[in-house]
Design goal:
The structure holds 2 protein chains of 2 kinds. Chain A is mostly helical. Chain A has 7 helices and no strands. Chain A has helices at residues 2-5, 8-39, 52-80, 83-115, 123-144, 148-180, 195-237. The two termini of chain A are 37 Å apart. Chain B is built from 10 helices and no strands. Chain B is elongated and about 55 Å long. Chain B is mostly helical. Chain B has helices at residues 2-17, 23-40, 44-65, 69-77, 79-85, 90-119, 127-151, 158-166, 171-185, 191-220. Classes of the chains: A mainly alpha, B mainly alpha.
């Protein structure tokens, strides 16, 4: 399927319907998920702040998922040299940075009432922060090289270097955290989650996933159009 | 083999001779270390706690400084094109350049590191370990940094871009290096940190040249 979609004409035909459909699916899933979320009773310990979880946890899932998509598209672009894969990688980066930022910001807002602090140098928080820095570096490199194909290739190399490095960063940060005997108050998983919370959480996770798919397709389409417009302008200029 | 030896000699001569050689990085390192007490207060007790860590952080920043010239100079005057056409593969060229960078910048910085750490209040017994970790970490800094330098070839605002790309890659060596020193100071197991640092640097030495060569080919295409 992916091989078939590397053909821009076929991709445009497919995404023309897929992008809005995924958007509608995301809206429905989000509406149901949020309704279930607000119907759920406040947590016995966290009170109403537990609602932040439904925004925060899917965002942090997506931050890694989008990086995986980005690295996959970059690999495809490096191996098969298809312009569409380059466009896909380029289109994914700001979305991933957005999800990562959302995860960090909501985590911080959640941490203030729960742990009494905006930020803890916990292993997981720190590695998400470094992931955010990787996204920023990627976008900075993209913006700094004028030639588009060269920028795409350089960014693809960087994305793969980052993909190798992210697990190492996570490991090193965890190692550092245990060394520092850090915040043991912070235990995320806790007791098993009751179904009243789990159902909306999973729904919202799927909602984020569909929303990302939709936005990604829209951005890739925009990228394809931009290139066409550039080509037409070149032809018109003679 | 001969080509590589010649290239090594050229790189060492250029790095050592041009633009003050390692002096610039050393001066930057010293300046950073001077600013720290001015910014955070000079009570010895407070400084001593952070001294090894700050010495390491400043080391990472100082090794960023000369990265911009690593490929850019040869890229601009066309020498990189000749090197790409020459007998040695670009991977070997990248390896030699980073190794020369390590010898001419990383090693002097590593020798300065214990002096700075001790002047900030670290224990004198830490000095050998600081030199060793700084030498090993410098190897990782040179080879990871080379990736950033090669990727940013032909871009606008190279220096700042290299810093943004490369500093996230410096997270593991900074953690392992500073962690090993801190563990040693606290009488804990410091060998793990040192070995992990070595592993990271060796991985950078092994994999970095391939990424650098791919990035250089891309910039030359």
């Amino acid at each position: 399927m992916i091989a078939a979609l590397t053909n821009p004409a076929r991709f445009m035909a497919f995404s023309r319907w897929a992008a809005p459909s995924l958007g509608v699916i995301a809206a429905i899933l989000g509406a149901v998920g949020l309704w279930l979320d607000f119907a759920a009773p406040p947590d016995y310990q966290q009170g109403y702040t537990v609602h932040i979880m439904f925004i925060h946890v899917p965002a942090s899932w997506m931050s890694l998922f989008v990086y995986a998509c980005l690295a996959g598209a970059s690999l495809m672009g490096l191996i098969f040299r298809t312009a569409l894969a380059d466009a896909a990688a380029r289109a994914a980066a700001p979305l991933g940075a957005g999800f990562t930022f959302l995860a960090l910001a909501t985590g911080s807002l959640w941490g203030r009432p729960m742990w009494g602090t905006w930020w803890v140098w916990d292993a997981r928080l720190t590695s998400v922060l470094v992931l955010f820095l990787f996204y920023l570096g990627y976008m900075a490199l993209q913006a700094a090289i004028d030639d588009e194909t060269r920028a795409a290739r350089a960014c693809a190399i960087l994305a793969l270097v980052g993909a190798i490095n992210l697990p190492i960063v996570h490991f090193s940060v965890t190692w550092w955290n245990t060394l520092h005997q850090g915040s043991s108050v912070f235990r995320r998983d806790g007791p098993t989650m009751p179904a009243t919370y789990l159902a909306p959480l999973l729904l919202l996770g799927l909602c984020y996933m569909a929303a990302f798919g939709s936005l990604w397709l829209v951005r890739i389409r925009a990228e394809v159009w931009r290139r066409r417009a550039g080509a037409l302008a070149m032809r018109a200029a003679g | 083999m001969n080509a590589i030896a010649v290239l090594m000699r050229r790189e060492l001569a250029l790095n050592w001779g041009r633009g003050g050689g390692p002096l610039l990085a050393l001066a930057f390192y010293l300046t950073m270390a001077t600013l720290l007490p001015l910014a955070s207060g000079s009570e010895p007790a407070r400084l001593a706690v952070v001294a090894p860590g700050v010495a390491w952080l400043a080391l990472a920043l100082a090794s960023l400084l000369s990265l911009e010239r690593l490929f850019e100079r040869d890229y601009e005057d066309g020498a990189l094109d000749l090197l790409a056409l020459g007998p040695a593969p670009l991977e070997a060229v990248a390896f030699v350049k980073c190794a020369a960078q390590w010898i001419t910048t990383g090693a002097p910085l590593a020798l300065l590191a214990p002096i700075i750490a001790i002047s900030l209040g670290a224990e004198v017994q830490l000095a050998p370990l600081i030199v060793v970790t700084a030498l090993i970490g410098g190897l990782g800094f040179a080879f990871c940094g080379g990736i950033g330098a090669a990727l940013s070839l032909g871009s606008r605002r190279g220096g700042l871009l290299i810093a943004v790309i490369v500093l996230p890659l410096f997270v593991p060596p900074v953690i392992f290096g500073a962690g090993a020193i801190e563990a040693f100071a606290g009488g804990l197991d410091w060998k793990t940190g040192l070995m992990l640092l070595g592993a990271y640097s060796l991985a950078a030495v092994g994999l970095g040249p391939f990424a650098m060569a791919a990035a250089c080919r891309n910039a030359l295409s």
